[in-house]
Specification:
The structure holds two protein chains of two kinds. By secondary structure, chain A is mostly helical. Chain A is built from 18 helices and four strands. Chain A is about 70% helix and about 5% strand. In chain B, helix 3 crosses helix 4 and helix 3 packs parallel to helix 5. Classes of the chains: A mainly alpha, B alpha/beta. Chains A and B meet through helix 1 and helix 9 of A and helix 3 and helix 5 of B.
């Protein structure tokens, strides 16, 4: 009776989405995070205004033209002071009177090793110091490289490595995106665990609550389990959709706002370029969905066979191990995505969500392996549903001692 | 399958838990429209039997049919079940919970909502519809659970110890509702260890003890059959009529006289003689055996004694019947 499954989904979804926990985690969470970044930056940008007017005394005559644009871009106002005998005394007075924020002395030593001196009345923040130091060093380096006819831009960007594939094996692979691979894998681990555990807790609650007998007299245990899993799954999708939207807003509106307020944070804009292409998003979601279905089935069975939270804590460890193993392996797999170990482990359905994702984002998976992983996961979903459904069906109405493994096997065989 | 006139039929139903036999070869019929009590001490197998009727447990042997057919086909929409251990979704609002319970038994949501509200009015909870179940007192929660049992207007009500844990006033309210359903033609099976409650409510009783059925009969016929032939009389005037061939012995009890009749003797000639003698008859009462006595006689005193359930007393200790 799909009608019943639907009723369970609806109840589960509405109860959860209306709960204070969900509202806090889903809506206030990103707001809070965003606020944490934007608000201090905003106030900080107002606070340090005075120190942003810098005088530069350029003893080399070649650095100012290179340095000034960089500092202006990062939010300072600069002007050049000619070198003369009393320049330090004069500028010091100006700074003490508050006419300027401070002054930088550049000389031949700066050209050789990037050292310079900043005289200032307020100690600048660590971030500003880094920006200043980096800009000065880079200006010196640019000058030195230009003297030797070197392509300064390309060298300082870190060069470029073009990969030309000789065989066909990896021709359809993407460029590696290590950060995305790692963060994505850990995020998958986290959300799969959180929501699968939610299914377990819901099952356990119904059981200890004794409402399950009333429900089971009106529908098949399998329908109840399915409704629970789909209901919690729908909640997870809602939550991730809101998070994704918040993330997009943060990068589309929040980061430019932040950079406008604190130009020295301009590097943040590069994060956007490091984010996965839209093409990876459906794959990410697909691996989440399959991972969630597999693990929530296992967790539903764990919940059904236990009688208390304490018991469940113990009984869930084999399932947690199944999630922890790929997390331990993911570093190796991302670093060497084409090894036979990486291939083999990532095709094991219970490891696929985390490891295959790591390989895909790490850039080492031929398309047929991705397809195969989904075929295997579909098989696993059905197999787990079959086994877990049987354990669930017996366990959900069972009181008393937690079953041993042989007993569990009997449950699976008998029902 | 055709309707055989029985709401519930069990044939040779047996359930074992490991070495322990909880229910042993149980044959049990509940004709449609009757109100039937399933009686027995704690641990005798009442809850296990009911769970098998409800399909929560599968019998190791024997068969269960409801309304003359496959129980799975009718259970969801035609049966209302109040388990012994009653649970609720504590975080749900009362009316939402009732709507949900109606929905999973095939009642559309708006209709379920309407009925839920109606019942809450009727049971004196109109102000609690949008309150969470956990905010209700235990007694009120039991009312909600009962509404949840009947909200889909089942044809068969199966209530496992429905009266335990209720205060006397709410027991009366619930009894009244049960009678009301009975009057509307609903078949009712309820388990209890309270013999006098069963005596008040039931048309049929089924007594089980130590996993076995001891008795299964129409209550009135049972009492007639078990009548020992004792007439309690109170009168003013002549006592000459007390002498007679029917009467074996006379015992004074609480200001009345108990006339012990001989085996198979009829009480009617005694009454005729009494009227003829001119005595003023205040009471002429064929004493019926109490259900408790019948049970003790059939199950043996030990069966009742070791479970410690004398008639008319409530024991709220938890049952092991479902373990």
């Amino acid at each position: 009776m799909w009608h019943n499954v639907w009723a369970v989904i609806r109840r589960e979804y509405l109860q959860r989405v209306r709960s204070k926990w969900f509202i806090a985690a889903t809506i206030l969470g990103p707001l809070f995070m965003g606020g944490l970044i934007v608000v201090p930056a905003y106030f900080a940008s107002k606070g340090e205004q005075g120190a942003r007017d810098l005088a530069i005394v350029d003893g080399t005559n070649v650095l100012y033209d290179r340095l000034a644009p960089k500092l202006v871009e990062a939010g300072w106002t600069v002007h050049e002071e000619r070198w003369h005998a009393d320049v330090v005394t004069e500028l010091r007075e100006a700074a003490n009177e508050g006419a300027i924020g401070g002054f930088i002395m550049l000389d031949e030593i700066t050209l050789e090793n990037g050292e310079a001196v900043l005289y200032t009345t307020d100690r600048p923040s660590a971030l500003r110091q880094v920006t200043l130091r980096g800009s000065i060093a880079r200006s010196a380096l640019e000058y030195q490289l230009e003297q030797r006819n070197v392509d300064v831009e390309s060298m300082l960007r870190g060069g470029e490595l073009r990969v030309e594939m000789l065989a066909n094996a990896g021709a359809d692979m993407e460029d590696p995106q290590f950060v995305v691979a790692y963060i994505g894998a850990f995020f998958l681990y986290m959300v799969i665990l959180i929501y699968a555990v939610a299914v377990m807790r819901a099952t356990l609650e119904e059981k200890t609550n004794r409402i399950v007998e009333v429900i089971i007299s009106s529908m098949k245990p399998w329908h109840l389990m399915l409704g629970k899993i789909l209901g919690v799954g729908a909640v997870s999708m809602t939550q991730m959709a809101i998070w994704a939207l918040a993330g997009v807003l943060l990068f589309a509106a929040g980061v430019p706002m932040l950079i406008a307020a604190r130009p020295e944070l301009a590097n943040l804009a590069e994060i956007r370029e490091a984010l996965p292409g839209i093409g990876l998003l459906p794959l990410f979601l697909a691996y989440f969905v399959f991972g969630f279905f597999m693990y929530s089935g296992l967790y539903a069975a764990v919940g059904a066979m236990c009688n208390s939270d304490e018991e469940a804590q113990q009984a869930q460890w084999p399932v947690i191990m199944l999630l922890v193993v790929p997390i331990i392996m993911v570093t190796n797999v991302i670093e060497d995505p084409t090894s036979s170990m990486a291939t083999g482990l990532s095709l094991f359905p219970l490891f696929s969500p985390i490891l295959m994702w790591g390989r895909i984002a790490g850039g080492g998976v031929p398309g047929w392996q991705i397809a195969l992983s989904f075929v295997l996961m579909i098989g696993a979903v059905f197999a787990i549903a079959w086994v877990a459904g049987r354990i669930y069906r017996v366990g959900i109405l069972m009181a008393g001692k937690r079953p041993t493994l042989p007993e569990l096997w009997r449950w699976v065989r008998q029902s | 399958m055709r309707d055989d006139g029985y709401a519930i039929r069990l044939r040779g139903v047996t359930k074992r838990f490991g070495k322990h036999t909880a229910v042993d070869g149980f044959d049990f019929d509940v004709p449609r429209g009757t109100i039937c009590g399933l009686l027995g001490p704690n641990g005798s197998g009442k809850t296990t039997s009911i769970r098998m009727i409800m399909g929560i447990l599968l019998p190791d042997e024997g068969s269960v049919s409801l309304f003359g057919g496959d129980p799975d086909a009718t259970r969801r929409t035609k049966v209302g079940y109040l388990p012994e251990e009653r649970g609720v979704y504590r975080k749900m609002k009362c009316l939402e919970l009732l709507t949900f319970l109606a929905e999973i038994r095939g009642v559309r949501r708006p209709e379920g909502r309407r009925r839920g509200a109606e019942w809450m009015e009727r049971l004196g909870l109109p102000d609690w519809m949008d309150k969470k179940v956990e905010d209700l007192s235990k007694g009120m929660q039991q009312k909600i659970q009962f509404i949840g049992t009947v909200i889909h207007e089942p044809e068969l009500l199966i209530l496992d110890e429905p009266f335990s844990g209720l205060d006397p006033i709410n027991q009366d309210v619930l009894e009244e509702i049960v009678r009301d359903f009975h009057a509307r033609g609903t078949t009712i099976l309820f388990s209890t260890h309270l013999m006098d409650q069963a005596e008040r409510l039931c048309e049929r009783v089924c007594l089980i003890s130590r996993a076995r059925k001891v008795l299964d009969a129409d209550l009135r016929a049972l009492k007639a059959a078990e009548r020992k032939g004792v007439v309690a009389v109170e009168f003013e005037g002549s006592d000459s009529w007390i002498q007679g061939p029917e009467i074996e012995r006379v015992v004074p009890v609480n200001g009345a006289l108990h006339l012990m009749l001989r085996e198979a003797a009829d009480h009617q000639p005694v009454l005729e003689r009494a009227v003829a003698s001119g005595a003023r008859i205040l009471r002429f009462d064929l004493l019926e055996p109490r259900l408790h006595e019948i049970f003790v006689r059939h199950a043996g005193a030990g069966a009742v004694g070791d479970a410690g359930v004398p008639a008319g007393r409530s024991f709220t200790g938890s049952s092991t019947g479902g373990a």
